[in-house]
Amino acid sequence: MRILVVGASGTIGRALCFELERRHDIIRAGRTSGDVLVDIRSRDAIARMYEAVGEIDACVCVAASGAMDDFDTLTDAQLIENMQGKLIGQINLVLLGRPFVSERGSFTLTSGIFADEPWRGVTGGAVISGGLHSFVLSAAIELDRKQRINVVSPTMVEDSVTAYGHLFPGMPPVSMESLIAAYVGCIEGGRTGEIIRAYRSFEDFFSKGRCV
Amino acid sequence: MRILVVGASGTIGRALCFELERRHDIIRAGRTSGDVLVDIRSRDAIARMYEAVGEIDACVCVAASGAMDDFDTLTDAQLIENMQGKLIGQINLVLLGRPFVSERGSFTLTSGIFADEPWRGVTGGAVISGGLHSFVLSAAIELDRKQRINVVSPTMVEDSVTAYGHLFPGMPPVSMESLIAAYVGCIEGGRTGEIIRAYRSFEDFFSKGRCV
User: Fold this and answer.
1) What ipTM was predicted for this assembly?
2) CA-based nearest residue in chain A for residue B88
3) For position A133, which CATH number holds?
4) Could you tell me the keywords of this UniProt record (chains A, B) (predicted)?
5) Is A170 exposed, middle or buried (0-12, 13-18, 19+ CB in 10 A)?
6) Which of B114, B134, B142 is nearest residue A71 as measured by Cβ atoms?
7) pLDDT of B48-58, one tens digit each?
């Protein structure tokens, strides 16, 4: 397959490309590096990227992480700004990418655990990820030419614990291996309209009063 | 309690006010009628409304319904326009309303079934409702002074079947009585951070291959 990976130089992107390029042709896209440059906050930049890339069999987005926020001073302007990349940007990857993705091709987007599991300081990220989940449910029944769409909702990945672990004390990380398997399953499998929660929920992790 | 009902003249709003005014002081807000006028698409209008109303014990929003959309021609601009009322507007009711809501007071918002159950032509409504669900999970752990927040996610209400039933064939409606009970439980009960899905899911409704 010919696979476009948006956010290819990020922590998840590098590991995903490493796995995918064993079997597929990879086109790396990123804001500052890659085979093609794109800032997904810009609708025009996404359109130009697709024109440059041409037909593909899969588009995977592992780009864009939202800023943390202070709820006491949070404004709608901050929320809308935060949405531009991870929510509107990923939606535009789908809306503008449809003609370039082959029949039975797929979109795989990235949300995050805060859609379903609240944490302080990430209201913006929660709104984005929750909106993205529902977008994927809808898009899956709207897309034609048997195109598929799924979204992977990661928790913090093991490789990021050193950098971000202090922000999320007590949050069990997911291994990079499991996370990459989630993306590969979406790209190479047949599922559509699914939200792949790449973590165990807090309740499941500490079920019945003991760690499992 | 002193309760602000935003969208008081709508189908749900009228029934909700009828029930609440048996025990509480109701302030009706709406775009074209009510004790106070407000268009929740405008941040300034919401701020003015709260200044005019003063301290309240509960804010309930049953206003704003999203436009339907055509996925084949859907644009990010349409989605953002659609978000202004039901998503950003309801978020602003919370962000700007906090100082006006009493200790242990509450916010009750309204999303919709399409957050979780896809249907054609409502991608915008889905994104809005999904984002709202995650906002409420976050806000519940961020609000101070023991303020509470919940969201009711209705399906089509029985009273609307004549007007909208043809758009959603096969969708089981919820009775107005059950739906109003969901709002009353949020306002007068102690729950917070909950998504009250005021419907049975499609799978539950037709479980085990037969109607239940």
Assistant:
1) 0.95
2) A76
3) 3.40.50.720
4) Oxidoreductase
5) exposed
6) B142
7) 999 999 999 99
